[in-house]
Amino acid sequence: MGIVHVRIDDRLIHGQVAAFWCNSMKINRIMVANDEVANNELQKSALRMVAPPGVNTSIITKEKAAANIKAGKYDAERVFLILKGPKDAIDLIKLGVNIKMINVGNMAHREGTVQIKRSINVTQDEIEAFKELNAMGVELTAIMVPDEPKTDLMALINKLQ
């Protein structure tokens, strides 16, 4: 099976992911692909503690994630791939990972961001990264919980322009 869902959520693994997404998609592995998080032992330990029981975690660099995915290491699992931002997705695609759809969940308010949907705040660089993903043919949605209707992220971004 491999990757069944890709989500951008700057909170990474948290209650909403654990409860709603893993249950509804019958996930048995959560993968966080982000270089900074992969190199922070304290953050990795905290993230592993909030993963649901029975769900494995891989908190690894983008390069290792790409190598493992391309080698078929997760083909027998149902993997939920969580990224911190759109740049992580671009990097994975450039490393050869086939990503066709990304759901954007939560991007917190930070300095220099503009809100495009409740809980989604983007910088100009992130807007450019989403446009690049869109140009690569990646479908971008904004869905907080699995039963919420699909929202087209690019339509939200295009309203800003």
Question: Per CATH, what is the topology?
Answer: Fructose Permease
Strand content: 15-25%
Spatial sequence of strands, sheet with the most strands: 3-2-4-1-5-8
Helix amount, in percent? 25-40%
Give Rg in angstroms.
15 Å
User: Quick one: how many beta strands?
Assistant: 8
Q: What is the second-level CATH architecture?
A: 3-Layer(aba) Sandwich
Instruction: Provide the structure class.
Output: alpha/beta
| Number of structural domains | 1
Q: What characterizes the major β-sheet?
A: 6 strands, parallel
Query: Which H/E pattern describes the elements?
Result: EHEHHEHEHEEEHEH
Shape: globular
Classified in CATH, the superfamily is: Phosphotransferase system, sorbose subfamily IIB component
CATH class: Alpha Beta
Distance linking N and C termini? 38 Å
Mean pLDDT: 94
Which residues form runs of ≥5 with pLDDT under 50? none
Q: What is this structure's SSE topology?
A:
Blueprint: E1 2-9, H1 15-25, E2 29-33, H2 35-38, H3 41-50, E3 56-60, H4 62-70, E4 78-83, H5 86-94, E5 101-106, E6 114-117, E7 120-122, H6 124-135, E8 139-141, H7 153-160
Parallel strand pairs: 1-4, 1-5, 2-3, 2-4, 5-8
Antiparallel strand pairs: 6-7
Helix pairs in contact: 4-5, 5-6
What does this structure look like?
- With 161 residues, the protein is α/β, with parallel strands linked by helices.
- The chain has one domain (2-160): Phosphotransferase system, sorbose subfamily IIB component (Fructose Permease), CATH 3.40.35.10.
- It has helices spanning 15-25, 35-38, 41-50, 62-70, 86-94, 124-135, 153-160, and strands at 2-9, 29-33, 56-60, 78-83, 101-106, 114-117, 120-122, 139-141.
- A six-stranded parallel sheet has the order 3-2-4-1-5-8, sandwiched between helices. The protein has a two-stranded antiparallel sheet with strand order 6-7.
- A hairpin with a 2-residue loop joins strand 6 (114-117) and strand 7.
- Helix 4 (62-70) crosses helix 5 and helix 5 runs parallel beside helix 6.
- It is globular, with a radius of gyration of 15 Å.
